Amino acid sequence: DASYYRILPSFIVMGFGMSFIWAPMTTAVLNSVPSDKSGVASAINGSLREVGTAFGIALLGTLANRAYQDYFRSSPELQQASVGASEPVQGLISLIGSGMNFGGQVVNGIAAEMGLVDERIATIQRVSAEAFMRGMDRAVIFSGVAILLAGILSYFMIDDETVLKTAEERDVERSLDGSVAPNIAD
């Protein structure tokens, strides 16, 4: 039920956060390769970003959905509401418990479609909303811990001397050790 203006500050913070990540990451990738390889490096960087995003969505979605299912199915409030419930209400509980994509306002829509006017519907929706928040909590905590660990690992794995060198210094080193043929035009 939140309005756009209520969630706008969160989107602004998220946008700033992404700008502080993507641009420096791309710059670091492009600065770590010779100029003639920058196209390939940029393509690989973009591809890995897309694959990582898809993998992250799948992983975090799975974690959130599993937490949703676990909480929804084991809720004492829902178990109490399902005692003596009609077959359509039992079917609705089973459907909503199968995954978070059936939660939220979908409960009301399905209940109205099935013609269910039962006081248990509000309980199902309330438990579904709480299960959704549990799932999102699990996904956010997992991603926060993963980001923290990745940051710590990066701190210890990235060689500061290599990062601080200019592109020209790296090109000179490569040409001296023979890994890059000097450009005749130079």
Q: Please work out how many helical segments DSSP would assign.
A: 8
Mean pLDDT: 83
Strand content: under 5%
Radius of gyration: 26 Å
- Helical content class: over 70%
- Runs with pLDDT <50, length 5+? none
H and E order: HHHHHHHH
Q: What is the number of strand segments? A: 0
Structure in words:
This protein has 186 residues and is mostly helical. The chain is 78% helix and 0% strand. The chain has eight helices and no strands. The protein has helices at residues 4-31, 38-74, 76-82, 87-97, 106-114, 120-157, 160-164, 167-177. Helix 3 runs antiparallel to helix 6 (120-157), helix 4 runs antiparallel to helix 5 (106-114) and helix 4 runs parallel beside helix 6 (120-157). The longest helix is centred in the C-terminal third of the chain and has 38 residues, at 120-157. It is elongated. The termini are far apart.
Q: How is the topology of this model organized?
A:
Layout: H1 4-31, H2 38-74, H3 76-82, H4 87-97, H5 106-114, H6 120-157, H7 160-164, H8 167-177
Helix pairs in contact: 1-2, 2-6, 3-6, 4-5, 4-6
